[in-house]
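Example 3.2
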Amino acid sequence: MKKLLTVLAITAIAMTSMFAKSAQVQLINTIDETQVSYELTYNNELIKDGTDEYSIKVLPLTEAGETEMFRVHASSNMNSDLSVKVKVKPESFKTTLNSGDDKVDSKITPEVKQSDFLDILKAGLNKNVLVNEFLLQWNGDADLPAGDYVSNVRIEYTIK
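Structure, written as tokens:
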């Protein structure tokens, strides 16, 4: 009797699986990559992209000095690692004498002091990631003539 019940149970299971159907589906969704967005700040104040002139008042050039921190942040959702390049190119401090007729070069060029930087922005969701942080320092010269000295600093940043 037990054998008969076992055989009937196996037969019932086998017959059920002969009539059963199944299917597998895949749900597919695409999230498009967005362009990397950048943000340059000085002392936590945003410097808008494409700004031609952003003036920073610093100590008199007769003394050693430094700026506050510059920071470059990036956001992206790219699905591959990206190379990060930040170039900072300061020029020497210059002024003019005699109502602009005579140009004076102080020969003092700010030095870039990096405190934090990334070479690679890792793939995935990145929101406001610090990719570079630096400040500018210089030694003063007490023997410079009076004047309004300006050092033009070009900051270029790319992530690709």
